[in-house]
Design goal:
By secondary structure, the chain is an alpha+beta fold. Helices cover 39% and strands 36% of the residues. A hairpin with a 2-residue loop joins β2 and β3. α1 packs antiparallel against α3.
């Protein structure tokens, strides 16, 4: 099992639109496509920084899920619609995490 920690920084003035996109559409699409979100947060006092954690059996499965998501016509239409007035995201950071042997139950 691996986890992917994803951190998004919204462009100035675009954080609420980014939150709406996740809340109204993206999280449901993730679930439909098998992307398992284990936690979703924003920083206290800073809604422009969104952090979430996904779980995958392995790195190959993660890559396949992301490729399918990025090519999905629903995602492409949603991204185009929500970015009609310009992009929402300044930066995306992805970190793949694995539990070391000594910390496994």
């Amino acid at each position: 099992m691996i986890h992917e920690l994803r951190e998004y920084t919204a462009l100035p003035g675009r954080s609420e639109a980014l939150h709406r996109r996740f809340a109204d559409d993206t999280l449901a699409l993730f679930a439909e496509l098998g992307l398992r979100v284990e936690g979703f947060w924003h920083e206290i006092g800073n809604r422009s920084r969104i952090v979430y954690l996904l779980a995958f059996p392995d790195a190959e499965t993660a890559a396949a899920h992301w490729a399918r998501f990025r090519a999905d016509p629903r995602w492409l239409a949603l991204k185009a619609r929500t970015e009609r007035d310009g992009p929402l995201i300044a930066e995306i950071r992805s970190t793949v995490l694995v539990t070391p042997d000594y910390a496994r139950p």
